[in-house]
Amino acid sequence: MNKRVVIFGVGGVGSFAAEALARSAIGHLMLVDFDDVCITNSNRQLPALQGNVGKPKVWLMRDRLRLINPPAQVDSKRAFYNAARADELLALPAAWKKHEHDQYDFVVDAIDNLTAKAHLLAECRRRGIPVVSSAGAAGKLDPTQVRIDDLADAKVCPLARELRSILRKKHGFPTTGPLGVRTVFSLEHRHWPKELTYDKGEGFSCVCPTGDADVEHVREHHHSCDEKNLIDGTVAYVTGAFGLACASVVVNALTGDLRQRAPDAQSKFADKAAKHESGGPGDGTSGTNGTNGAST
Hints:
The structure is a single chain. The two termini are 25 Å apart. The protein contains 8 helices and 7 strands. It has helices spanning 14-23, 57-68, 86-90, 114-127, 158-170, 236-255, 257-261, 263-278; strands at 4-8, 28-32, 73-77, 106-109, 131-134, 146-150, 182-186.
């Protein structure tokens, strides 16, 4: 497919989304992330392989995707998304343009920083670029509870709740009803982390790489474990499910597959927003997913 997709964040969710898109024949993929591989990424992130600790995730994923799909054009930007860099990071590479004002065909938001995440979603809305956003995958154990629906329907996710608040207060999103952001989230309530027996009384020291001092935004935005009050647990089969669900939204939208094979599922999201805007009642159904979407 001669489609152009940018993935922001290539960690536990984004790396699986990126690989699924490469394996689905997306022709142009841009990867954006500022972080280096940490040994603690080994349980869930595709670039976390033997010998890769301390190396930039986007470079590793770029090389991996080029091996998976050699004909595709895969590029990367080692950068932290923020308001100051929005124009640069959302700009389609000149070589990928067919027309002067071309934009990305789709954006995947797998960012875990709330300020950056909210700004990216607001920019996509302002520019008219389709986007799918991942809510919080940490603290979850059941991949069968992953859903795809409007951000407003992610009721039990703390990250989604905070994100809605920021979008409504700072970016002018609707104060009630659907926000118009397709979101991957879980119906599962968060499992709080428990102190491990072998950690008791031993203290804790972050082992994550700090990044290169000469790389702009890397050290400034490095997430040190030492500075966190709480670190939620993660498992690959949940973060991976989130990433694969994000990829499904992109591929189905760009190929028109849902419109052809499951018109009810495809129209559900759009109908919900349209009915809210017109003052009509909702359809009372849950989001498009593997169990209540198209019949198989």
